[in-house]
Structure formats: structure tokens, C-alpha cells
Amino acid sequence: MNVYLVQNSRKVLKDGLLKRSKRRWSPLPFNIIENDVLPFPKDVELIASDSSATRSVYYTISGPGVTEEPVGVFSVVMDTGMLQVNKAVDRERTPQFVFQARVFDRYTNQETDLPLPIIVNVDDVNDNAPTFTGLLQFTVLEQSKAGTMVGMVNATDIDKRGTDHTKIRYSLLSGTNLFYINPETGVISTKTDTLDREVNDKHLVTVEIRDMNGALTGLFNTATATIVLGDINDNPPTFTKTSYDVKVKENQGEGLILRIPIEDKDLVKTPNWITEFVIQKGNENGNFRIERDPKTNEGLIYLIKPLDYEKTKNLKLEVMARNQAELSGTKAQWMSIPVNVSVVDEDEGPEFTAPTVLFTVKENTPNDTLIGTYIAVDPETKSSAGIKYYKVSDPASWIKVYETTGQLKIANTIDRESHFVTNGVYNVTMKAVDASLKTGTGTVIIQVEDMNDHVPVIPSKDLVVCEMDGGEMGSVLVVAEDKDRAPFSAPFSFELGEEHDGRWAVKRLNDTAGMLEHTKELPIGLYTVPLMVKDLQGFGKTQTVTVRICRCRNGACLAYQNSTTLGVWAILAMLLALCLLLLLFLGSSLWTNNKMHSPFLTPSLTLSTWSLQKLAYLGTREEGRYADDIIHAYGFEGVGSPAGSVGCCSDQDNQEDLDFLNTLGPKFKILAEVCNKK
What pLDDT is attached to residue 520? Predict the structure, then answer.
């Protein structure tokens, strides 16, 4: 079989002559069969070059399958160029080999042709059976319709694609009465709608996969697929008994009184199995509650309100059980059973005629005033004979309870504004005790009516008015409050007291506040203003507020900020006054003792009257703020102080220190001249 081509190449020269070049050989690809059997080596094809006709040549090959991995698969007969295969080949590992062939002159060892690429394809044989891929575990709901998809079986074959060697066909070897598999796609579907999880929750089916399109000669594998049936709520919970009876003592405290077991065939711990219980009848008074035990799925009936034998001797409850999920795939309904509750009679303590009683009392009602009677009776005899009454709680000790009659009288003055009263209500707890020392309790609710026993008051009586510029009058907010309730409190009226000085006015701002303002320009200082504040009934009294008029910074009174220190100007005025007095004292002494005339003494004496008055006035100023607008008299303390002179003017070594006096205006100019003379 000739599977190669030998081609000669020619070139056209400029002179039009043809010249032969080295030959290029292009053999067709060779083919071998995988897994070939002995004996080896086996001839594949002849590799030949036309140069062998004129020369003595030999052949070599190299590359993968020859000198490279996998080494030694192929070889060539050097003299003839016959390509041989030396061992069996697995197509699934190496489907093709590509290596090079060369031809050499035997005498010169030079290549006679260009290297030739050799391609050897390995033909496939069906030596691999198909295999399963993926999990063979599927789930489908019970009672699914016929034809419902369950899942898909996946398989693969490593033989050559596109051939019958890899064409797989699927089939079921078991479970064919319930399931069906598509032979081409491997999809498993239900064959019936009668699958019941409660009968059989899991099915095992055998699946076969065979290549060669399912031919008997094809290779195959089998495996077991697991089909789990999913649960639907096709079984309602059922009771293990047809009815229940339970006994409960009257006045028994809260607690469990009955367990109701339940059976459910559906999947445990799912909404199809979890039971919800409902008391449909007999619990109109709310004496019971029912809940589920999360561990056992039982119904638990609890008593939450005591039962009274004298009122109810027997109760018939109807309890229904249902699942969290609705029923599906069944015609069954939720079930109910009766529960009979019998109340057992007990010797009880006395009971008040009502759990609570309401009395209305005006505050400040006189002591020993009867406000009402609160009695108890024996629940069986309905008699109150032999029952005694006591207080359990009376926080303010306002009420006196008569032991044998249950009468309630005022013991101490009731004040509606007391912190013991909440929203006008005061509570007293009473206890009734019978001859057997059994007890019962009740509550007395006292509704305290308000009286107009409080006048409106001004809680903050220290007020501040900031000095205004441009002759504008200042004002301040006055707020009042009254402990009484309407109509004995706001809205309030505001007016000046009878002893006011005419320099102030007040007007109402809202129900609880008024605006106080001065009507005349007033200097900085403290003022007292009488104010009359009345409630809606005209009940009130005169109260005195203190108003401080001051200069403010950022709304705060500067007088407060400097109240503990003297201002710079006040200290300066005091020092200057001391200087002047010392000078006058020295001048007088010289005039009297030495009979000497002082050229500056007379003007100084003239100045002193004005200066003392002005300095006393200045001494009461604090950085431009006057304490009050009066003149203080100077108190003379005598002469001849043994301490000598301590005046600032008589002991000035540095005259420049008093230059600042010249900047203080004409009021201090003369004083500055006097102090600077010696």
C-alpha cells in the first residue's frame, strides 16, 4: 500500500533553465491499532526517498515514541526505511505520535533530503466500558403523578468520541414496576402515582449502562440507584384515647393538669409531624392554656386561673390536634376529643363582696369621717359572721379599718397633692380572716377629690433684668405653679401688690407666666417688687420677688461674675481718696504747728469737699456699675498716727507712676496735680 508521496522541487533561473533542488517528501499519516497483540515488531509502512535510486542511503527517525517518551515504540530499518511498531499502544493514553525521519548518503553521511515529519494515528478499539459519574441518590415526593422526573443518571466512556464505542444506552434491571429510565438520556421517572412513604420510604433500583448503543457485544457496568420518597402531610395526628377525664381542686394554683399523647405517621420533626393543639370549646373564661411538648409532641393542658367549685363544678373542654402544615393527598380531617374537668370542693377562706371597691373622698376631710364599708363573706355559707378585717397596706396611714364591721374612717388628713396619690387615686389593701384563720384580700380604691388648698407660688423669686441701651426698659419672665388641679389652678392672673412703688408693671403672658418690666429708667442695683398671683378661682397671695438690674454679657449678669472682688476703679478711687486725706492732714499740721503758709493748702482744702464727695461716689462703682445712687460721708479718725504716712501720694518715688491720673478726665485732674506736688 503506497501511503506516501515523493515530490521534487524545481526553480526557474533567470536564463530560463530549470534546476533541481532538494526533494520534499510528504507521506500520508500512518495508522496502527491500539492494543495490538504479539508478535512484535510489526511493519507499519515503508519510508522511501527517490534519492535511494541513485545513491546508497540509510534512514533514521527521532522524537516522541522513538527517542523521547514513550521511548522505543517505533523504529526504522536503516537500509530499507521500513517503519516498525515494537509494542502495544493505548489510544486513551497516546492517540497520536509525531516524529521525524531523515535520509543520509551512506558514504558522505550528508542528508539527501529535508527532514520528513511522520504522523502515526492510533485507531480505537472498544476496550473501555462506560462508567457512572455523579451520585446515584434521588428524591421524589410520595404520591407523585406518573411521569414525574426522579433524577438523571450520568455516565461517560473514554473510548473515541463519535463512535459506537462511546454511544451509551441506559436500562433498569429492577424496580421497573415503579420507575422508568429513558434509554438515551438516563432520566428516571415515576411509573405510578401510588408511591407511599409510610409503606416504603426508600427504593433501590439497578441501573445498567452499555456502550455500542446497547448491543449485546457492548461493554457495560451496573450500579444501584437510591430513590428516597419525600413526605407530604397525608396523615393527620391521631389521639391514643377517645376522651380524657381530669380532676382539679378549686383555687388550685397554676400548673400542668393533663398530658395528651399523639401519633403521626408523617416524617418526624417536620411540619407534617409537629402538632398544634387548640381548645375549641369550654375555655371561655380563660382558665386553661394548651401547648405542645417539643420533645414528645404531646399536648400539655395547664390551669392558669383558679376554679371556684361554688360557681363551676364541671367543665367540658374540646381539644383539636392539627399539624403545622396543611393536609395534602388525603381526604382525612383534623381530629378532636373531649376533656372533662371536674372541680373538687375545698374549704375556702372568706371572699370580699368584690375584688375592689371604689370610694370618693375630698381631700382635707375631717378625721373620723366614715367613707364606706368593705366586707367579706364565706363562699359556701354566704355569711360574714365571725369575719374580722385588717389593713395590709395603707402607705400614708390615712384610713382606719374597724375590725368587726369592715367600716373605713379617716384617720389622718388626706392630701391629694401627696406623693402617695397617683393620678388622684390612693389604694388600701385589706385582709379578711375567718374563724379557721383562712384569709382573703381585697383592694379599696380611694378617688381623692381636689380642694383649692394651695395658692399659686413663684418658685424662683430671684430675677435678673439686663440693662438695656437707648432708654429701652428691661423685662423678666415670672413663672408660677400651683399644686392643685383644674379648676383650682391655672390659668393664673398677675398683678402688682398694694405696696408697689410705681416703678414696675406686670402683664400676663400665658396661663402660668407673666412679664415683669420697669416703667422708669432705673440704675443698676437690687429691687424688691410685690406680686399678687391668683388661680382661676381668685385664690392667691402677695409674694415678693427680688430683681437685680445689671449689665450682662451673653445674657449673664456681670455683677455675679465679680461679686467677690472689688473693681479696678473702686480700688483706684479708694487709693486716691487716701492720698488726698493724707495731704490734707499734713498741710493742717504744718499750718498749726509751724505757723507756715502752704501755697497749695488752700486750694487743696477747697478741693477736698468736692473730692471726698465724688470719691465716695466713685468708690461705690465697679467698672461702670453703680451699687446705689447715694453719697457716703467721710469718717474722720483723728491725727497723729504713729505709723507715719502710708498714703500713696506721699510715698511716690517714681512720679511717672501717677501719669495715668491725667487720663481719667477732669474729675481727677486736680487730684492728680495735688498728688504730684511735694
Answer: 84
Which tens digit of pLDDT belongs to each residue from 317-340?
999 999 999 999 999 999 999 999
Which range in 341-350, 597-606, 611-620 is most confidently predicted, on average pLDDT? Answer: 341-350
Which fold is adopted by the domain 131-230? Immunoglobulin-like (2.60.40)
List phi, psi (to 5°) of 241: -130, 165
Q: Which three cell numbers stand for residue 239?
A: 389521639
Residue 191 predicted with pLDDT over 50:
yes
263-267, long-range: CB within 8 Å, 24+ apart, which pairs? Answer: 263/237, 263/238, 263/239, 264/235, 264/236, 264/237, 264/238, 264/297, 264/323, 265/198, 265/235, 266/198, 266/231, 266/232, 266/233, 266/234, 266/235, 266/323, 267/197, 267/231
Beta strands in 282-334 (DSSP E): 288-292, 299-303, 314-323
The closest alpha carbon to 142, from 324, 237, 272, 269, belongs to: 272
Mean residue pLDDT across the chain: 82
Cα–Cα distance, 619 to 396 (Å, whole number): 59
CATH topology of domain 3-123: Immunoglobulin-like (2.60.40)
Question: Rounded to an integer, what distance in angstroms lies between the CA atom of residue 609 and that of residue 204?
Answer: 131
Would you list the domain boundaries of the chain?
3-123, 131-230, 238-344, 351-449, 462-557
The model's confidence at residue 568, banded by pLDDT at 50, 70 and 90, is: very low
Q: How many residues does the chain have?
A: 678
Domain boundaries 351-449, corresponding CATH code? 2.60.40.60
Residues pairing with 626 in the sheet: 621
How many other CB atoms are there within 10 angstroms of residue 13's CB atom? 8
User: What whole-number percentage of the chain has pLDDT above 90?
Assistant: 54
Facing residues of 325 across strands? Answer: none
11 - beta bridge partners?
Answer: 19
CB 76 within 8 A of CB 83: yes
Residue 493 has pLDDT above 70, yes or no: yes
Q: How many CA atoms lie within 13 A of 222 on its CB side?
A: 10
What pLDDT, on the 0 to 100 scale, is given for residue 583? 66
In three state form, how does the secondary structure of 162-220 look?
Answer: CCHHHCCEEEECCCCCCEEECCCCCEEEECCCCCCCCCCCEEEEEEEEECHHHCCCCCE
CATH class (in words) of the domain with range 238-344: mainly beta
Asked if residues 618 and 577 have their Cβ atoms less than 8 Å apart, the reply is: no
- Domain 462-557: top CATH class: mainly beta
Average pLDDT over residues 648-672: 47
Output 383 or 270, whichever has higher pLDDT: 270
